């Protein structure tokens, strides 16, 4: 982790006056090469810009959000950089790593695993909160004091839990269709059991509703968009649990139920501008 | 071709207040099942809306533009439907059909082939100009008197040649990075030889510059965006040939060279709004 960091450029393409890059580096946290996307708005040519992290959902790589969300247009207007990490280590070779869409590759759940063998490389929490910010801060003109975070589904869970645990590091927080309580849904129970073991007491540190109960949130309002035609709404996402936790602790939550929208990037694209303008108010 | 047409819905998803659909039907022209994307803006709930055809480039299916271009936001605002056909027949089983990215599958070049075996199903010109409009007109609330066309690369060639040959059917015309003279570039020479045979006289009917020389264009100005960092600019695209042909015939061309942009969907997304607002003026 010490010494100069090496960053390989996969591609840099002009987009809305800025540049959409894809980069690769050897990660000490995950023990493998990791890719991430970074959009730099045109304002980055003249000085440091605020930075917004996007955490993606199950099965995604860094590419999905970069090509499908239409984020660059508004980010270029507002002068915000957008960082998009991958969703797990890749190719570590653990038994069963590629067997399911909701565990292992593409499903890191933004935790630091404690169960073998996952604890060696499935350290997406530390990767996203420490290693990647240090690398981006060293290599790109971003302002480490003006950072926000958002994400979708598993990545909405990631954004919520990461910001709630690190309120000094993230000035703004929003999510699309987040898994708000992985302790209380099948996706989350499978992942937390696999990565953290059977002791549910340890899961509370990666459950947004439990974190709100334990710590509250002194930051600005939390913005959440949720489609009411989302096929995962009742079984996995359960936004009412977040509403209840926020209400109990006096946390300001702007939960917007969107009629007829599903879980896809067509939904995300439809409201991405709202989220960027929300973050820009606080960054 | 007679009798009621059967249309299968693959998916319909809410997007920017409208719906992004993907549909499949058995095509008489191509002899196989064809898929297309159709975005209907919210205005289509109240009556017929204008329709803009997008023709995609080499290797694309109907999906690329639908998920990457960010077109739905502006189309929803302006009340324009967007139809996106596939770029070739699929799975006809002709020898060599899947051997190259620039001929056969994904590379129909919007011609009606005359060479065997391609002449049986590689009839994308008739598919795009006749069969698909008849189907869409029967099944969806679009106004057949308010239709425009645009496309990218091979699809820019398709949009130009189709509109130039059918000026009564298309009220507006634009392109991104079009192949403006397939008779004079390697991609085009390969495709036209394969689909039409070695007699170059027959090629002129599918060459935008030759069509402008032969027929002119009485419609509104033609809008073309072209990145100056496009790796295919000098060898394949040659926008100067279009500029020369238009100048010689007094055709109004707005050719915008875009500094630093390449051939990708990041380029298309950056200027898609300009193109939709251009088409909206004439539709």
TrEMBL record, chains A, B:
Swiss-Prot/TrEMBL keywords: Hydrolase, Serine esterase
**Annotated coiled-coil segments of the chain:** none
Q: What chemistry does it catalyse, as a reaction equation?
A: S-formylglutathione + H2O = formate + glutathione + H(+)
Q: Where is the signal peptide?
A: none
Q: Does the keyword Hydrolase apply?
A: yes
Q: What Gene3D superfamilies does the database record attribute to this sequence?
A: alpha/beta hydrolase (3.40.50.1820)
Any GO MF annotation of the entry: S-formylglutathione hydrolase activity
According to the record, the segments passing through the membrane are none
Cite the EC number. Answer: 3.1.2.12
Write down the top EC class of this protein: hydrolase
InterPro entries documented for this protein: AB_hydrolase_fold (IPR029058), Esterase-like (IPR000801), S-formylglutathione_hydrol (IPR014186)
The Swiss-Prot or TrEMBL record describes its family as follows:
Belongs to the esterase D family.
Which NCBIfam families does this one have? fghA_ester_D (TIGR02821)
Known role: Serine hydrolase involved in the detoxification of formaldehyde.
Name this polypeptide is given? S-formylglutathione hydrolase
Q: Which organism was this protein described from?
A: Acidiphilium iwatense
- The gene behind this protein is fghA
């Amino acid at each position: 982790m010490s010494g100069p960091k090496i960053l390989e450029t996969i591609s840099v393409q002009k987009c809305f006056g800025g540049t959409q890059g894809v980069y690769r580096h050897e990660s000490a946290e995950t023990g493998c090469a990791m890719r991430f996307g970074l959009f730099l708005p045109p304002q980055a040519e003249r000085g440091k810009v605020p930075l917004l992290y996007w955490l993606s959902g199950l099965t995604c790589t860094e590419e999905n959000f970069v090509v499908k969300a239409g984020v660059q247009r508004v980010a270029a207007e507002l002068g915000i950089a957008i960082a998009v990490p991958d969703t797990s280590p890749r190719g570590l070779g653990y038994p069963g790593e590629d067997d399911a869409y909701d565990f292992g590759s593409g499903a890191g759940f933004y935790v630091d695993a404690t169960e073998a063998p996952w604890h060696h490389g499935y350290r997406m929490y530390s990767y996203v909160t420490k290693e990647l910010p240090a690398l981006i801060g060293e290599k790109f003109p971003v302002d480490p004091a003006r950072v926000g975070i958002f994400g979708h589904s598993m990545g909405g869970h990631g954004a919520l839990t990461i910001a709630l645990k690190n309120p000094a590091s993230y000035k703004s927080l929003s999510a699309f269709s987040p898994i708000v309580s992985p302790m209380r849904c099948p996706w989350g129970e499978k992942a937390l059991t696999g990565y953290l073991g059977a002791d549910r007491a340890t899961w509370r540190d990666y459950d947004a509703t439990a974190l709100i109960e334990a710590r509250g949130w002194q930051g600005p309002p939390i913005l959440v968009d949720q489609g009411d035609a989302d096929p995962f709404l009742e079984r996995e996402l359960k936004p009412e649990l977040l509403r209840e936790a926020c209400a109990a602790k006096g946390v300001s939550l702007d939960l917007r139920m969107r009629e007829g929208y599903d879980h896809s990037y067509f939904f995300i694209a439809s409201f991405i501008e709202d989220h960027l303008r929300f973050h820009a108010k606080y960054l």
